[in-house]
Specification:
The complex is a heterodimer of chains A (about 160) and B (about 325). Chain A is an alpha+beta fold. Chain A has a five-stranded mixed sheet with strand order 3-2-1-4-5. Chain A is globular and about 45 Å long. In chain B, the strands form three sheets. Chain B has an eight-stranded parallel beta barrel with strand order 1-2-3-4-5-6-7-14, surrounded by six helices. In chain B, a hairpin with a 2-residue loop joins strand 9 and strand 10. Chain B has two domains: about 240 residues, TIM Barrel; about 60 residues, no CATH class. By secondary structure, chain B is α/β, with parallel strands linked by helices. Classes of the chains: A alpha+beta (about 160), B alpha/beta (about 325). At the A-B interface, helix 5, strand 5 and helix 6 of A face helix 1, strand 8 and helix 10 of B.
Chain lengths: ~160, ~325
């Protein structure tokens, strides 16, 4: 079990509270702001096509949050995760720290998986392709504001070190 | 010694080059290479970008076309060689004799490396590949002890490359069809020994269970590290005992052997992991770059640092490393 440091004691409930209180349409808009530019090159290369009619869940256990992603007009978008919606085909599950380390590429997903900090449920092939899709995002091609935002996550990452 | 590093995506390639790779090996987006996974590898546009990035920074690009051509798909394997030649990559890494012959006949200028999947372990074998097909380098399979590597190197007509780090397999490289037993696919024939479409992970109250085509491969207790769900690394009941009957999930790490490999005349060290992320590539390549530089600067006083070993163990399968077959005095 990973021990929480003082920063995490504050950070986790705050993020959890924000995620809980943020209405879905706003969550979707915020997600769109990031997802569209990050995966634009992949979309143009046809590398998002495998997600057609599929739903992939990202479950962040320690803040009790699940995001579901699917294609909407060819773009990757946040979808409702409620039980009334279609079930996800695969779920990638882990704690917030693992997802932050994935986002800023400070940790290798397979290593997190070996260490049992990430796990995959459902269609492994789909989850693997999503992992490879994220790995293939060329950060050099991203708009400047987005690169700066990502570098901010490195500061947060240090709180988990 | 040249440091040959893996890349399954453009960001991984950049990570390799930026962290000191002398050469990076990549594969195309189909079953012509032994890391045939969804979403991995390079289309022609990305391969060109990779080549430009590497060349601008003085690094070489090798293309692995290291599965065995199937009768129905021969044109696909030819196309892979054609594309590599068109891009004028620095070498192609091939295992299949027929494909080696095609490349040698069609593109005499294209440097050929014999892939580890070719499973050539003797100087006589290497002489054959050299005289008949003109290979310039061979990658030795991880089945030889250090003494055996030395013996082969003494008489080899071509440069030799050996594995320095990465997930270890059952050591029948180039000859392993074990996974066909449950999945009908194997590295040589399909470029994969644990097809993701056949893999299922299930978390229960007691354990994490991995299945390959519905065959239970392993059950991990809460605190246990996991491995890739390949048949060879599963735990099986043999008589009354359940254990890793074939191979443990572990990574090869030969930092300690750098002086021996150099003395044996080995020309290149290969790092495994085209299926891994840019983060893995960055971490592993930077450790190996530091180690090789440290050896080059002061060969007599070289010893591997604890910090290097820790960083490599962190990204290792099973979080542990071994010297593998290199350290088998009886062999």
């Amino acid at each position: 079990m990973i021990k929480l440091n003082p920063c995490q004691h504050i950070l986790l409930p705050t993020v959890k509270g924000l995620a809980k209180s943020c209405p879905f349409p706003l969550q979707k808009k915020i997600a769109m702001l990031f997802l569209v530019p990050v995966f634009e090159e992949a979309r143009l290369d046809g590398d998002l096509d495998f997600l057609r009619d599929r739903r992939i869940g990202l479950a962040i256990s320690d803040i009790d949050y699940q995001a579901t992603l699917r294609l909407e007009n060819g773009h990757l978008a946040l979808a409702k995760s409620t039980a009334s919606e279609a079930p996800t085909d695969a779920i990638i599950r882990g704690n917030l720290s693992a997802f932050i380390q994935l986002a800023n590429r400070s940790e290798d997903p397979d290593s997190l998986f070996f260490q049992r900090r990430l796990c995959i449920e459902g269609d492994t092939d789909l989850a693997l392709e999503v992992k490879n899709l994220i790995d293939a995002v060329d950060l050099d091609e991203l708009p400047k504001w987005l690169k700066q935002t990502l570098s901010l996550t490195q500061l947060v990452d240090k709180q988990f070190a | 010694m040249e440091l040959v590093c893996p890349a399954g995506s453009l960001p991984a390639l950049k990570a390799a080059v930026d962290n000191g790779a002398d050469a990076v090996y990549i594969g195309f987006k189909d079953d012509t290479n032994a890391r045939h996974f969804s979403g991995l590898n390079f289309n022609d546009r990305k391969a060109q970008k990779a080549l430009d990035y590497a060349r601008d920074r003085g690094a070489k690009i090798f293309v692995a076309i290291n599965t065995y051509a199937q009768p129905k798909g021969w044109a696909r394997w030819q196309r892979a060689v054609d594309l590599a030649a068109e891009l004028s990559v620095d070498a192609v890494i091939i295992a299949d004799l027929g494909l080696l012959n095609y490349a040698a006949q069609r593109y005499p200028q294209l440097p050929l490396h014999l892939s580890v999947q070719g499973s050539c372990t003797s100087a006589e074998g290497l002489k054959f590949y050299h005289s008949e097909l003109g290979i310039r380098r061979a990658v030795l399979p991880r089945v030889l002890s250090l003494d055996q590597v030395k013996m082969v190197a003494e008489q080899s007509p071509v440069d030799l490359e050996v594995f320095g780090f990465g997930s270890l397999c059952i050591m029948a490289e180039g000859r392993c069809h074990l996974s066909s037993y449950v999945t009908d696919q194997s590295p040589n024939n399909s470029g994969v020994c644990s097809p993701a479409k056949d893999v299922r992970w299930t978390q229960t109250e007691e354990h994490l269970e991995s299945r390959l085509n519905n065959v239970v491969i392993d059950r991990y207790q809460a605190e246990e590290t996991a491995g890739y769900p390949t048949l060879c690394k599963g735990r099986f009941a043999v008589e009354e005992t359940i254990f890793h009957a074939l191979e443990e999930p572990v990574s090869l790490n030969t930092l300690d052997l750098i002086p021996d490999l150099y003395a044996a005349g080995i020309k290149a060290i290969k790092l495994e992991g085209r299926q891994r992320s840019p983060a893995y590539v960055a971490q592993v390549v930077s450790v190996w770059r530091s180690a090789l530089d440290s050896f080059a600067n002061n060969p007599e006083k070289f010893s591997s640092k604890a910090e290097w070993m820790q960083r490599l163990a962190k990204v290792s399968e099973g979080s542990q490393t071994t010297l593998g077959a290199y350290h088998r005095p009886w062999q």
